[in-house]
Write a structure and sequence with these properties.
Keywords: Bacterial flagellum biogenesis, Cell projection, Cilium, Flagellum. Required for flagellar hook formation. May act as a scaffolding protein. With 217 residues, the chain is α+β, with helices and mostly antiparallel strands. It has two domains: 58 residues; 122 residues, Immunoglobulin-like (Sandwich). Helix content is 31%, strand content 36%. It has three helices and twelve strands. Strands 1, 2, 3, 6, 9, 10, 11 and 12 form an eight-stranded antiparallel beta sheet that branches. Strands 5-4-7-8 form a four-stranded antiparallel beta sheet, with no helix packed on it. A hairpin with a 2-residue loop joins strand 7 and strand 8.
Length: 217
């Protein structure tokens, strides 16, 4: 005889009743009550054998363990989300580096940007360009090692819209071109979340995931 701890008619639990239905201790208590009731009302000529009882108890212990694990993981996920939000708040007002070629120009006319080299280069130059690709100025940076590098440019001598300026990096050795990635600088003005992940809203209007931040200045 196999004990079935699930009732024959489905029910819908809401509020406190739903919490009780998912509570591991409450589930185990209901199971034990059903087991005692079955033992009290079993057929004396066909009693529940030890193997069947052991199987039933093992099943309820497995279900109880899974419910406990689910509740623990849910609690950890909520705590992690809260920690992310607190971490995001500390980022407001800080400048960060994200992938992009927009030149950041301060109120004092200082243009700033950065780039990452995939390998050492003997000749590196940064070209400041308009949205149409016209070169405004060139910054010769000479030989540079693999990794991230920052640069500055005096944007006060440019009479056009400084907010539209872009930059591009060219790096090479005698063997050929060296791969590079442009990084733009912007200030964090707000934080949020998307699919449980922290997002940052930047002063340039873009929203990026925290995982896409390449540096904090």
């Amino acid at each position: 005889m196999i004990l079935n701890p699930v009732g024959s008619a489905p029910t819908v639990n809401t509020g406190a009743s739903a919490n009780a239905a998912n509570d591991p201790a409450a589930m185990q208590d209901r199971f034990l009550k059903l087991l005692v009731a079955q033992l009290n009302n079993q057929d004396p000529m066909n009693p529940l054998d030890n193997a069947q009882m052991t199987t039933q108890m093992a099943q309820i212990n497995t279900v109880t363990g899974l419910q406990t694990l689910n509740l623990t993981m849910q609690t950890m996920a909520e705590q992690f989300s809260t920690m992310q939000q607190l971490q995001g708040i500390t980022m407001i007002g800080r400048s960060v580096l994200t992938e992009g070629d927009r030149l950041a120009v301060s109120d004092k006319g200082e243009g700033k940007g950065a780039f990452v080299l995939g390998g050492a280069a003997t000749d590196v130059k940064v070209e400041v360009v308009t949205p149409g690709g016209v070169v405004v100025d060139t910054i010769e940076m000479g030989a540079q090692d693999k990794g991230r590098h920052d640069f500055e440019w005096d944007a006060s001598k440019y009479s056009g819209n400084q907010a539209d300026l872009r930059f591009r990096v060219t790096a090479s050795t005698k063997e050929g071109a060296v791969p590079s990635m442009a990084l733009m600088q912007s200030q964090v003005v707000a934080t949020g979340s998307s699919s449980g992940a922290l997002t940052l809203t930047l002063a340039n209007g873009e929203t990026v995931g925290y995982a896409n931040i390449h540096g904090v200045l």
